[in-house]
Amino acid sequence: MTGIIALEGGGPFRLHDDLDRRLLSEVGATSVVVLPTADAFERPDDLIESARAWAQRLGVTIDPLMVMRRTEALQNENAAVISRSRAVWLVGDNPIHLRSVLKDTPIWEAIVSLHQSGGLVVGAGAPASALCDPMIDPRGGALALGLGMIKGAAVVAESEKETPDRHVRTRKLANVPLIFLPSSAAVIRRGELWESVGAVEIEGILP
């Protein structure tokens, strides 16, 4: 039984309370692993504080997993934290770093296993792009290798913040369907079924 993948355009722990509450209830999660890896060079502790306030509003608890480097993602004890959970949130602003840290590690294997066993995996903002393969490279809008939880589609996260020229470049370079996600929007995948929430713009047929 596969679970749920939710790609949120942005605003983790601020803009999606109703959707998050619904998804957590759907998988029966009362605790959430928060993985701020993509914010390793910014302020990951601020994301954790936002997550604590969010968890209090939603009536759940959080388990911060401060995996910032690849050596930490290779540690089985960190992967075990995810294996014991029903839901994981990937947050932060750097999808390239997220991919470099997680790809082909026990942490990533645990996330894939969580999903395959019926759990919930959420990528909010840049991690929504990184969960796909290909992934949008934020340095120029081209396509790059992603983590591949969703294959054959690419996400433009926080699409309202991108310039028209960047959108044109991404469209020109893309050879897969594109999902343009404003911060307040999301797409959810359950098996082969897709659900759109908010002002989602999809170009092409999703896999």
The H-and-E topology, N to C, reads as: EHEHEHHEHHEHEEEEEHEEEE
Radius of gyration: 15 Å
Spatial order of the strands forming the largest sheet: 3-2-4-5-1-12-13
CATH fold field value: Rossmann fold
Structural class category: alpha/beta
Portion of residues in beta strands equals 25-35%
Q: What is the end-to-end distance?
A: 18 Å
Number of domains: 1
Helix content: 25-40%
> How much is the average pLDDT?
95
* Overall geometric form: globular
CATH class: Alpha Beta
Strand segment tally: 14
> Helix count, per DSSP?
8
> Which architecture would the CATH scheme give at its second level?
3-Layer(aba) Sandwich
CATH homologous superfamily (4th level) name: Class I glutamine amidotransferase (GATase) domain
